[in-house]
Structures are given as structure tokens and as C-alpha cells.
């Protein structure tokens, strides 16, 4: 019996153990697939003095541990000075206004929405957005202007100011 035949014989047992570890059928199948890929790719490292079953389950367990490690949120410690004030939850009115602006942005033409998101959301300057989109800065500036005007109209702030879209660099 070849090594590949022995590996194939242990697939049902690997699936059973992977399911017990992951408690999720799809995750277990992915784990077994990953284990088998690793075993086949590194079969030249297998020493004939160990049982294939033990070797496979060691690979399975190590892959499972890697899945656990990669799925844990990474904590970052920050100095207290960097934290600043605790953000306050917005009012219901501000949530509704945000939803209104979000919907209005979705109704903008694609070219206006793209430049507005780069400038207003990502904080790029007109020149940076122009380089990112491979457009002349004048085109970007006019599209941002048209997008802002359209948003003011759609959200009922056509008087020339829009408190919901502030802090952009033009």
C-alpha cells in the first residue's frame, strides 16, 4: 500500500475529527482539504517509522490551531493619550440623516460617486484623487462640485451648505 493510499484511507476519520473540532461542516471540510493538501505536498518529509494516521492527525490539529490563531481578533495596546475622548452615540435624527445621505450617494452617477468617496470619505485632495483615477484635477473638482450639489438637492439642503458632508479637502 502506497503512502497516498494510506492517506486516502484516513479521510473519513479526518472528516469526523475535523467536524468535532470545528463544529461546522463547511469549516471541517476546508480543514480536511487543507490537511490533505499539506500532507500530499510534504509527503517527502514523512518518515516511514511513524504511523500515517498519527502524522495526518498531527497535521490536522496544527492546521486547526492555525485557523484558531488567525480568527482571533488582534489586540493593540494604545497609550491613553492616543485614545482621546469617548465617542458619543448619535441621536436618532443623525442616524436618519446619515441613512438619507447614504441613499443619496447611492443615487449619484458612478463617476461622481467615485470622486466624492475618494475626496469626502477617504480624505484625498483633488490632486490625489485625480492621480488615483487618472483624470485631470479640473475634472475631479467639477465632479466633486456636481456631486455635492446633487447631494444637497437630494437631501433638502439646497441653500448651499451641507452639514453632513464636512471636513473634505478640496
UniProtKB/TrEMBL annotation:
All copies of domain RNA polymerase sigma factor 70 region 4 type, residue ranges: 99-151
Q: Name one Pfam family in it.
A: Sigma70_r4_2
Q: Which GO terms describe its molecular function?
A: DNA binding; sigma factor activity
Q: Which UniProt keywords apply?
A: Sigma factor, Transcription, Transcription regulation
GO terms of biological process kind: DNA-templated transcription initiation
Per UniProt, residues of the PhyR sigma2 domain are 7-60
The record's NCBIfam families line, in alphabetical order, gives: sigma70-ECF (TIGR02937)
Which family would the database say this protein is a member of? Belongs to the sigma-70 factor family. ECF subfamily.
| Protein's recorded name | Sigma-70 family RNA polymerase sigma factor
